[in-house]
Design a protein that fits this description.
Number of domains: 3
Radius of gyration: 21 Å
Structural class: alpha/beta
Bound molecules: FE3-S4 cluster
Oligomer: single chain
Largest sheet: 5 strands, parallel
Number of helices: 17
Distance between the termini: 57 Å
CATH architecture of the largest domain: 2-Layer Sandwich
Strand order of the largest sheet: 12-11-10-13-14
Strand content: 5-15%
């Protein structure tokens, strides 16, 4: 693998141990994927930010890099942690986890990360431009960065994202190379779709068909929102290994169908039908009873517009006293929601705005057991997919309106 003189000096340790360690990780990674060179990276998003997922050994590695003078050279943000600092007692999270989480977050801060603790870092300022190389972890964020922003990132793990942050480098393979960014699979969307749930169902169906192939959507309406694209991408990355999609006339690398396919013909062509949508919904809507106890909105973390819409939908209504409604977002968005009065509206209705974590990053299995929850009701295809494994029970999956209505009535209208 070709290294510049500067990269060789990094690898030789001339710029200190953390950079040397980072370059060792980058060169091993690059050689295993046949990369010929490095690219300069300006933005990173750290997936290993939850102590529950990273563990003590991972935390000690991050602490070691910080103690030895490591400093991130990219704009680095962090994924959700294990707890909401303001709600951990109410949610039944142990103090031992809170303390370990604080140590890990402090180490990231010492390294120079913006510890925003969200899977939607693009809503809090980390938004690399078209063609900019990045090193992001968190599958839903990766697909958004590649597809909606047009940045170039592979799906990084904790150590490789950390190494890129320290060195400002990533091996040039996969999504960094323009020839790997062309569409392979054409999806004709001929029926009207809208909202988080319908875009999530579309993504969930197509992800399962696509595997690692890059899908190109034709027929997505031009007024599709960023939140709908967020839902589409996160679902694609849940049922498949998709890191990039194109939507013709909408996403930056797909001004035309020809551009989306790099001038080549699609390998596969499909039409998205009502039957496909029904199959995706049936696959995710696994709870058979109408029982509702834990209602969850915000996977991926809500934008300020989603929080606003939830606040509006709850106006003049009350969450059932035996239901817990989570609206999941970042502290940054919750702060803005407080400023706008949306947070007060949600809390007055009996909902909780839970920040900086999510059921996949917090000890939710123990929490659910303690609270006596039996099911989770959500509008998110990704959360509906993971909840059985993370929490141990099935989900109700439906539109945002239906999910909110179930929080009021404590009943799922199947
Ligand atoms: Fe974000 Fe957790 Fe969903 S990290 S994408 S809210 S599973």
């Amino acid at each position: 693998m070709f290294l510049t003189d500067q990269e060789k000096r990094m690898l030789d340790g001339e710029m200190g141990y953390p950079i040397q360690k980072g370059m060792q990780i980058m060169t091993v990674l690059g050689e295993s994927f046949g990369a010929e060179r490095m690219v300069n990276v300006s933005s990173s998003h750290m997936p290993g930010a939850s102590i529950m997922l990273l563990g003590r050994a991972g935390m000690m590695f991050v602490e070691e890099m910080a103690a030895k003078g490591g400093q991130f050279s990219t704009f680095t943000t962090t994924n959700p942690t294990s707890c909401d600092d303001t709600l951990w007692e109410k949610l039944g999270i142990g103090k031992d986890i809170v303390d370990l989480q604080a140590r890990l977050t402090a180490a990231y801060q010492k390294l120079g990360a913006i510890t925003c603790a969200t899977c939607t870092p693009y809503f809090v300022g980390n938004a690399p431009r078209l063609g900019e190389h990045a090193a992001w972890g968190e599958s839903s964020a990766v697909v958004y960065a590649n597809s909606v922003l047009g940045a170039r990132t592979n799906r990084e793990g904790g150590p490789t994202a950390l190494a890129s942050s320290l060195t400002g480098k990533a091996p040039a393979y996969g999504m960094h190379l323009p020839e790997n960014r062309c569409g392979k699979l054409l999806i004709q969307v001929t029926r009207p779709i809208s909202g988080i749930f319908e875009y999530g169902s579309l993504g969930y169906h197509v992800g399962a068909v696509a595997g690692q192939l890059t899908p190109v959507f034709s027929g997505i309406p031009s007024d599709v929102s960023f939140d709908e694209l967020k839902s589409l991408g996160s679902a694609l990355a849940t049922s498949g290994a998709v890191s990039l999609f194109h939507a013709v006339g909408i996403t930056p690398e797909a001004p035309t169908l020809e551009a989306a396919f790099g001038g080549k013909k699609p390998e596969v062509e499909l039409e998205y039908t009502a039957k496909d949508e029904r199959a995706a919904v049936e696959h995710l809507n696994l709870e058979k009873s109408d029982h509702v106890d834990w209602v969850y909105l915000g996977c991926p973390h809500c934008s300020i517009l989603e929080v606003r819409d939830i606040a509006r939908a709850l106006a003049g209504r009350k969450v059932h006293p035996e239901v817990e409604l989570w609206v999941n977002t970042s502290t940054a968005v919750r702060t803005l929601a407080r400023h706008m009065g949306y947070a007060a509206a949600i809390e007055e209705a009996g909902g909780l705005i839970v920040c900086d974590t999510c059921p996949a990053h917090t000890p939710s299995r123990e929490m659910a057991k303690k609270q006596g929850y039996r099911t989770l009701t959500t509008d998110s295809a990704k959360m509906a997919h993971y909840v059985a494994g993370e929490v141990g029970f099935p989900s109700h999956y439906g539109s945002t309106e239906k999910v909110i209505a179930s929080a009021i009535s404590k009943r799922w209208e199947g």
